[in-house]
Amino acid sequence: MADDGVLIGYSDHPQMLRLDRANRHGLVAGATGTGKTVTLQALAQGLSDAGVPVFAADVKGDLCGIAAPGTPNEKMLARAKAMNLELRPDGAPVVFWDLFGQAGHPIRATISEMGPLLISRMLELNDVQEGVLTVVFRAADDEGLLLLDLKDLQAALSFAAEHASELGAKYGNVSPATVATIQRKLLVLEDQGGAQLFGEPALELSDLMRKDGAGRGFVNVLAADKLIASPRLYATFLLWLLSELFEELPEVGDPDKPKLAFFFDEAHLLFRDAPKALLEKVEQVVRLIRSKGVGVYFVTQNPADIPETVLGQLGNRIQHALRAYTPVEQRGLKAAADSFRPNPALDTAQTIQALGVGEALVSVLDEKGAPTMVEKTLIRPPASRLGPLTPQERAEVMARSPVRGLYDEAEDRESAFETLQARAAQAEAEPPEPAPRKGGAVPRTRDDAPEREAPRPRASNRQTAMEAFAISMVRTIGTQVGRELIRGVLGGLSGGSRPTRRRRY
């Protein structure tokens, strides 16, 4: 490695990634089994040696070998000799991270930090559901409810369903059925282990930008071999991390070397079925994060997986072999070839198909920021191990980690879930208010009643037995006479028909 660059490989001359142009982003592409992971590992270790911290996802589980010295075989030694390169086995300083807290330190974000747009992407919500989720976030802010973990969001959704009419009048229609749909999707996310992503202590970005005592940048390796089974969760988390870097890091312009290099493996997952709003956000972050001193490198199988608006921002490109057996693959091959600065001595499209393992077409930015002509390059072998660590070796690396003990235990402080529970308990403890009478009159208590005069003694109205018998006989006779009179009148009016009993409902 030179002082001003990282060695990528050799063509007829060394191919170097200039450190002062490494924040202009890059692309590592190629079909499965063509050597992308080896190239990623060599770049990551080279940047680390230059004092640049690195963040990379370990999708297949073999990138973790970067923490251990390599054991070069005869083929690797021969390649190094052909490059006039002294291959000295050495491992990079590494910090292991894992969303599930199994193969690395837990890495968390709060619900509020993630925001409704990214959570909607993670849950695969439609526009209507995303709108309701946005209302829930806004209502939580207005109510002073902290959204930290998944149970906070679930509690806020229940609150929104119970107060749908009130929230609808203030923020827009909130359908309890839509809220229920979001809650069901949260259950699916929880079953996939997504609940462990949310909570505290949240990740401090400064912990991704550490250096060791020798001035080498730490390589932050995210264990993604299980995470990749939930592609939306994987892509959303990495995009959130990029967004946080963009929002929190200060402007530095074009530094002598990046503050952080970010490798986004399986990058096509970020753009698959992504809504327009999300694509615009990705484009904005990629375009502007350069001035924050962060270089983003997308690793994918085909450049066609990357939208053109984003692809145009990637100045440093390493293209491994592509296969073109179908019309779709042929169009992708042509697009990949056309993305390079042409070399008159090279048929780019034909060369891409004929590349062997460990070979690539390389074009990087020169000292003026212009892309160099594409050249066929033999990729340098890494000094670290090609292959995974054993569980014991991983445990030893984690034991001497600079962030040991900072994130291993989750915290659960008072937030929306606890606040809403306390409100519900208080409402149950308070006696209910008396209901008003008809007409709005409030019932008076005995103490409020005005003083009344003492009741006067009443004359006795008790009847004797003979008086009661006489009154009863009179009432009976009167009733019978009345019935006969009415029957005669009504019978005459109705033609003598018998009245029908009316059914009551």
Characterization of the model:
- With 505 residues, the protein is α/β, with parallel strands linked by helices.
- 40% of the residues lie in helices and 12% in strands.
- It has 16 helices and twelve strands.
- A twelve-stranded mixed β-sheet has the order 2-1-12-11-10-3-9-8-4-7-5-6, sandwiched between helices.
- It is globular and about 90 Å long.
- The model is unreliable at 444-455, 457-474 and 476-505 (pLDDT under 50).
Q: What share of residues is helical? A: 25-40%
Mean pLDDT: 84
What fraction strand?
Answer: 5-15%
Number of strands: 12
Count up the domains. 2
Number of separate helices: 16
Radius of gyration using CA atoms only: 38 Å
Shape label: globular
Distance between the termini: 95 Å
- CATH domain fold name of the largest domain: Rossmann fold
Low-confidence stretches: 444-455, 457-474, 476-505
Q: How would you write the strand order of the largest sheet?
A: 2-1-12-11-10-3-9-8-4-7-5-6
CATH architecture annotation name of the largest domain: 3-Layer(aba) Sandwich
What CATH first level of the largest domain would be assigned? Answer: Alpha Beta
